[in-house]
Design goal:
Length: 260
């Protein structure tokens, strides 16, 4: 299948999914969400044993597309809820994918893009890659990603990243446990393929069974937390701070927050 926002290369035992909106820093659009979910379904149905996710150009994924952000301001509460559910489906699809996944992070992975990069089973990054959840800077909330982030790095570090909205480099991301390895730029895809080769050498039944077991250990709690996060993700879009934060971001000015 031809995709508008990515390309899927099925090369024997390795499937490589590359986000292909470099002019938009591979920002997330509704079309991209649908494309990623469909491409992963194709990879799952193929003979591929491992999936590599990466980005074209200088960024891995810079978060939500500006056109999508502009459109948010005109949407109804029901549409906000639908948007939140769509994003949750993207994250859950990556997190629950039955075959091993490797994110090869070639540049900035911000907000939702950071979620995509770190929800893979393995995350390899170049030294210049940046990671961060910047939602609080525009009056938003990193609700959906925080569900998974707490499981990955613990409550204290999640509060650090989610409340500060700060960006961290690949070395700090590795120290926190978000990144497995940092490699030179020209070795990113080769390193991902070497890791894929070690995974392919193992039993596919064992790998899928292990992934399924790890998911089932906390699935009920995960579903409950995602449901709560969807609601928060949707509701905050109707607040004055979100309206101001979004307007300030789009107008490239400092926000003027309401008094509480």
């Amino acid at each position: 299948m031809d995709f508008k926002t990515l390309k899927l290369d099925l090369d024997g035992s390795i499937a490589t999914l590359t986000l292909t909106r470099p002019e938009k820093r591979n920002a997330i659009s509704t079309q991209m969400i649908d494309d990623v979910i469909t491409a992963l379904a194709e990879a799952q149905a193929s003979v591929a044993r491992v999936v590599i996710l990466t980005g074209e150009g200088k960024a891995f994924c810079s978060g939500m597309d500006l056109d999508e952000l502009r459109a948010i301001a005109t949407r109804s509460p029901a549409e906000h809820l639908q948007d939140s559910r769509r994003m949750a489906q993207l994250f859950r699809t990556i997190y629950s994918f039955p075959k091993p996944t490797i994110a090869a992070v070639n540049g900035a992975a911000i907000a939702g893009g950071c979620g995509i990069a770190t929800l893979a089973d393995f995350t390899i990054a170049v030294p210049t890659a940046q990671f961060g959840y910047t939602e609080v800077r525009i009056g938003f909330v990193p609700a959906l990603v925080s569900v998974f982030l707490r499981r990955q790095i613990g409550d204290k570090r999640t509060r650090d990243l989610a409340l500060s909205g700060r960006l961290i480099d690949a070395a700090e991301a590795r120290a926190m446990g978000l990144v497995n390895d940092v490699v030179p730029n020209d070795d990113l895809i080769p390193a991902a393929r070497r890791l894929a080769a070690t995974l392919i050498a193992s039993s596919p039944t064992s790998l899928e069974t292990t992934k399924r077991l790890l998911l089932q250990m906390s699935e009920a709690e995960l579903d409950r937390e995602i449901s709560m996060a969807i609601q928060q993700n949707s509701e905050i879009r109707s607040t004055p701070d979100f309206s101001e934060g979004l307007a300030a971001f789009l107008e490239k000015r400092a926000p003027k927050w309401s008094d509480h």
